Amino acid sequence: MAAAGPQGIARLEIQNLATITRLSLELGSGFCAFTGETGAGKSIIVDALGLLLGSRASTDLIRTGEEDLLVTAFWPRGKDELTASRRVSLHGRGTTRIDGEVVTLRELQQWSQDRLTIHWQHSAVSLLSAANQRQLLDRQVAGATAQYAAAYQQWRGAVARLEKLQSSERERARQLDLLSFQVQEIREVAPQPGEEEPLTTDLTRLANLDAIAQAAAGSLELLSDGEISALGLMSQSVRALNAGARYDEATAQLQTELREALDAVQAVVSELRVTAENSAADPEELARVEARIAALGKLKTKYGPGLQDVLDFQARVADELAELQRDEQDAGTLHEDVLALEKAVREAGARLDEARQKAAGPLAGQLLDVIRELGMPHARMEFRLQTLETPGASGLSDVKLLFTANPGEELAPLADVASGGELSRVMLAISTVLGAETPSVVFDEVDAGIGGSAALAVAAQLARLATGRQVLVVTHLAQIAARADHHYKVEKQVENGRTVSRVRLLSPEERLEEIARMLSGNTSEAAMSHARELLEPARAQAAGAQAKATAKAGARKV
Q: Which among 39, 126, 127, 466 is most buried, taking Cβ atoms within 10 Å?
């Protein structure tokens, strides 16, 4: 039996984020709605989850007076829990963890993207971008897209190289001369990493030979050449032990050790005498060392700061020089290569266009099925390809998403004809068809600009989407909140003179009152009656869906 994939978020804990001081929120499966008064901070939940997806962590998010904020999400894993957290600090880089282990922000982002998708308030507006419209279609033809991108990159690389060759001959000749000089200058000196320290030591010694000889002579005077010397005293000491050494082994051993010390001092004296007598400096050796140090210093000044940097520079310049020399040799054939690669790009582009045309109709059909369910029964949509004059980075054609919501109207670019509410519903359709592959999906204000029957249709679609995954929705529409399996309310309070936001799961009675408030701004009997009308069908449909799920589970067991 295959292992189960990731599940929805079981619990979310937040500390010191905006107006939230401390929150531990148990999240249910299925459809979770978050509502509250305008300005209550409903989107704080989305902001918190966004941090786990790697969104920019501004220190402005940290509650005033606190040093850091912390967001932690918990996922069920058998009898245990799997966690992901992100800490943002006022004083330095934050900390990201997966199951307690410190990871990079990039690793946390990649890990969370397998479990969580967020459709922000601006997501629908992003549909107006031609690049994003093209990407919707290209997600269906990833193989052809990758093949074209590889061919295009090779072609453009060859074109850039040809253009470089066709630039000023004088400039290329100047560059060749400069690179050749730099390589030769370093090669003549042939620096070796680590040679500077022994050279500096030699220079110090050669420059101070007279002082070294005088020091050796002074030491010789004390050890052997003076009227009273260390060697003379030690020799006398050895002879003084003769009488005792005849009768005592310990004394004999001491005499032996003293003789060895005397031999060692005599050896030192011999070397000191050589040092004292060689006080004359070798001008040629001194000049050689000074010249070597100067040559190395010149290279470091021009190409350093260190000798290893000089050698690295030499390697880079040698590669550039070899490339320029190859370019001169290959100039005759490179033009033919460019033509051949352009032909390959056009062939790959033709295959990409064919794949796009093949995928465009079915994708538009899938999206329209959902869009029409969302209160736009006459909507039409088409992905249309427009041939470019020259091959572009994304193909031989540009892709435009054409749309109309009304019968009798011509298809036109989505940006020109879709209202805010229509755009939100198109976004929801795309999210349903293409973007709900993760076990948790978050919609922030997806209901912007819609109401009435369209709101009911969006609510139904969200509920349908939630049958296979956890769907979290921040909404201001009662029609949507009424379809939720779990209804949370975000509230602001003033405690000790400071604003605090709290989030809590509503009881059935509290939920009824919240739906009434969302409908009419009050809890009058009329508003409460209307709220019941909204909730009853939702409860019945939810019960029916639960019964079907239970029946399926029972059938599987049998």
A: 466
The two structure tokens encoding residue 345: 């790009």
CA dihedral 164, 170, 175, 176 (to 10 degrees): 100
Place of tokens 């409460």: 528
pLDDT score for 186 = 87
Say how far apart CA 271 and CA 279 lie, in whole Å.
Answer: 13
User: Are β-strands 20-26 and 395-404 bridged in parallel, bridged antiparallel, or unpaired?
Assistant: unpaired
**Angle of CA points 499, 505, 506, to nearest 5°:** 100
Three-state secondary structure call for residue 73: strand
Helices assigned H by DSSP within 229-282: 230-240, 242-245, 249-277
Tokens read off for 8: 């929805």
Tell me which residue of 225, 312, 234 sits closest to 273, measured CA to CA.
225
The answer to whether 67 and 89 have CB atoms below 8 angstroms apart is yes
**Alpha-carbon span 240 to 257, nearest angstrom:** 14
The per-residue pLDDT for 51 is: 93
Kindly state the tokens that stand for 395. 């193909």
What is the residue type of 446?
V
Give helix 283-303 / helix 196-207 axis angle, nearest 10°: 140
Report the alpha-carbon distance of residue 123 to residue 434 in Å, rounded.
14
So what's the pLDDT on residue 206?
Answer: 78
The pLDDT of residue 273: 85
Neighbours of 302 (CB within 10 A): 12
Q: Residue 106, Cα to own-chain centre: how many angstroms?
A: 4
Alpha helices in 466-524 (DSSP H): 478-481, 508-520
- Which residues sit opposite 13 in a β-bridge? 24, 72
Among left, alpha and beta (phi > 0; psi -120 to 50; other), residue 281 is beta
**Residue 535 DSSP label:** H
Angle, nearest 10°, between helix axes 307-373 and 420-433?
110
The per-residue DSSP string of 79-136 comes to TEEEEEEEEEESSS--EEEETTEEE-HHHHHHHHHTTEEEE-TTHHHHTTSHHHHHHH
Point out the residues of the chain with pLDDT beneath 50.
1-4, 549, 552-558
Rounded Cα distance, 477 and 172, in Å: 68
305 preceded by cis ω (within 30°)? yes
pLDDT at 211: 80
The pair of structure tokens assigned to 117 is 């998708």
Nearest C-alpha neighbor of 27 from the set 513, 516, 469, 552: 469
DSSP 313-361: HHHHHHHHHHHHHHHHHHHHHHHHHHHHHHHHHHHHHHHHHHHHHHHHH
CA dist 554 and 144 (Å) reads 44
The pTM of this model reads: 0.60
